[in-house]
Amino acid sequence: MPALEKQEHSFKQQIIEQERNTKTMQRLLQEGEQQRHALKIKEEDLKSRLQDLSMEKKKEGGSAVHAPKSIAGATITIEYKLEGENRVFKQTLPPNDYFMEEKDYVPQGNTAFISFGYSEPFGAARFMNHTITGARSFNELMDADKTRPAIITFTHKKGNTYTGTIKGYMVNDRMPSQGTRLSGITITLPQ
Question: Does the global pTM surpass 0.85?
């Protein structure tokens, strides 16, 4: 009889163990289902975001700011920071205060290549000649076989005024070894 009781006890233990395993499996299945559901929600959210981004890109493409075909007669304001300064300085040049040839402005999509010069009084009866260029210094500008232009990326247009960033330098003949890095540009076309 004790062997029969031992066997019955063993069966009961196995049944209890199987019930525990069944509960564990059911819990794991539930967790797996919850994870699958959470992943499905994330996937749908990502698809929705991707569609939104795609629509934004299409809208931007249609309303992207294109460089003006010509800036003849425009007022130009350049922005720059002096080394070690946080303040942004601006220099506004009306149409008759700078000199630029037609080949010195080349638009391409929302960017444009540009180079031009202007002069300002410097001491008694002298002038300082500035050049907007891609060269880092006046010396580099003079040593180059071909003048590198600065590059404008237009980011905003309001009426006849275009604004953007400019990658280039303002160099001058009074400080030939260093130029001032440009940061922004505003071009207002004549009406």
Answer: no
